[in-house]
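[step 3/7] fold_predict: job queued, chain A
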Amino acid sequence: MNPNDLQAKYELGYALLTRKEMGRGIKTLEEVIQSRPDHAEARYELGKALLQQGHIKEAIENLEMAARLEPEKAEVHYQLGRAYVSAGRQADGKNHLEIAKRLKEKARSQTNQ
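[step 4/7] structure written:
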């Protein structure tokens, strides 16, 4: 793998997370984001992994950025809602869970047309 190929590095980080190699996966995704802070998928996967590990503040930071970069992705809002609830921010959490629900319904209705 070319160490400068950020997409390959992202895919490696994602694969590590799916294999439950959380430490290595998180580190790899952090390297991707260091090189490209606007990599929405890396922000999302990193935020989700950090949330699973109980690193709520860092999860929120990454998921908020992912939501700004890809505001139409329901799964980003869903994970951000979960992170806010974990941080005790119930209203923010509920808001993002509702956004996720609306986006899923919108996508479902578009595929049925």
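[step 5/7] annotate
Residues 22 and 31 are 14 Å apart (CA to CA).
The chain has one domain: 6-111.
exit 0
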